[in-house]
Design a protein that fits this description.
Elements: E1 21-27, H1 34-41, H2 44-47, E2 50-56, H3 64-68, E3 74-78, H4 81-88, E4 93-101, E5 112-117, H5 118-122, E6 137-138, H6 146-157, H7 172-180, E7 186-190, H8 193-199, E8 203-208, H9 209-212, E9 217-224, H10 234-255, H11 259-269, H12 275-280, H13 294-306, H14 322-331
Parallel strand pairs: 1-2, 6-7
Antiparallel strand pairs: 3-9, 4-9, 5-7, 5-8
Helix pairs in contact: 1-10, 1-11, 10-11, 10-14
Length: about 350
């Protein structure tokens, strides 16, 4: 087994790469998990003595009971009531890194957006936040979703009460089809449907994710708290491989480095099977140093409490930054390619 242990000459901390440890990882087959797919494809995980068994899920709520029981050791969750309530029950999980957050560049801003049916935009029926009052604004996961938090903050900024809007559930493909059939009026979309809807004249972008909530933390990486029992520095080892994959993902999508290879991998691992689509759409941003916007997550909890959707809880104890800090000490902070 190759060792990733550095020498004193490198100035890196020592990292054991043995014994070999197998981890069960829960993912969604979407581009935001590109860092993990790359880390597995390029051998970054094997370099630090890890094998991963990847299991696909349709949503993050399905992963919660499994990681709480240790049947998954790594998974993700969102800025949603279902995840926050699980933390309130003090399940055995830790938030350790960013998976997806607000875009920071032209190529990454707008990967999620609030869209309005094209005809309603063109005739002036829905053009401002005020026009949403009394309407149904469709979200991927219904009330208590991160999209509701996003939309609610946008309304509050304009002095409007989010409780004067309904937030029913409609999946991204179903919303796309409903707008084409002159059904749904307004709702949240994600790529590739955001770009497809604009280019095909199905919808108009009312506001991007970043315009509504510029500091949003959408999805984050979680460890089972028993992870450290599986072998020496398993959490640190996984984090190093994950961040290496994440930096490769960012370099490909933002700067075009090895982009064809990365897009080929994404078409194999995700639900988007046309490489041309990945070259047209906005990509999901994540912090290349793994930093989680803790304040944004706590603020969402407070907002959901004010909207009557959950009890107010303090999730400060759920964050564990030691794995990310070690990885940054080992890898160095991210430097954009020159």
């Amino acid at each position: 087994m190759p060792t990733a242990a550095p020498t004193a000459r490198t100035g890196r901390p020592v990292l054991p790469a043995t014994p070999l440890v197998t981890l069960q990882v829960g993912v969604l087959p979407v581009a935001s998990w590109g860092p993990l797919f790359i880390a597995r494809e390029r051998g970054y995980l094997k370099e630090v003595g890890l094998e991963v068994e990847v299991f696909n899920f349709s949503n993050y709520a399905e992963q919660l009971p499994l990681i709480a029981q240790g049947r998954l050791q790594v998974a993700g969750c969102a800025n949603a009531v279902v995840c926050f309530n699980a933390f309130g029950r003090q399940i055995d999980v830790q938030i350790v890194a960013d998976i997806q957050s607000a875009g920071k560049t032209e190529k990454s801003m707008g990967a999620s957006a609030l869209v309005v049916r094209r005809d309603l935009w063109e005739d002036g029926t829905i053009r401002t936040p005020h026009d949403l009052l009394g309407r149904s604004v469709y979200t991927q996961a219904g009330p208590g979703s991160g999209q509701q938090a996003m939309g609610a903050r946008w309304l509050i900024r304009y002095g409007l009460d989010p409780r004067s809007v309904e937030w029913p559930m409609l999946t991204f493909p179903d919303l796309f089809a409903s707008m084409q059939n002159r059904g749904a009026e307004v709702g949240f979309q994600s790529e590739p449907f955001v770009t497809a809807g604009v280019t095909r004249g199905v919808h108009h972008v009312l506001a991007t994710q970043e315009e509504m909530y510029p500091t949003i933390q959408t999805v984050y990486l979680m460890y089972w708290t028993g992870l450290d029992q599986l072998g020496p520095m398993v959490g640190e080892r996984f984090m190093i491989a994950y961040l290496r994959g994440g930096r490769d993902f960012l370099n490909a999508m933002e700067y075009g480095i090895d982009q064809d290879a990365v897009i080929d991998l994404l078409t194999r691992e995700t639900t988007i099977k046309d490489p041309a689509v990945y070259r047209q759409i906005k990509y999901p941003w994540h912090d290349p140093d793994g930093v989680v916007a803790r304040e944004a997550l706590q603020a969402d909890i407070d907002l959901f409490h004010e909207l009557g959707l959950m009890d107010r809880i303090d999730i400060s104890r759920v964050f564990e930054d030691k794995y990310r800090r070690f990885a940054i000490e080992y890898l160095g902070t991210y430097q954009p390619p020159r």
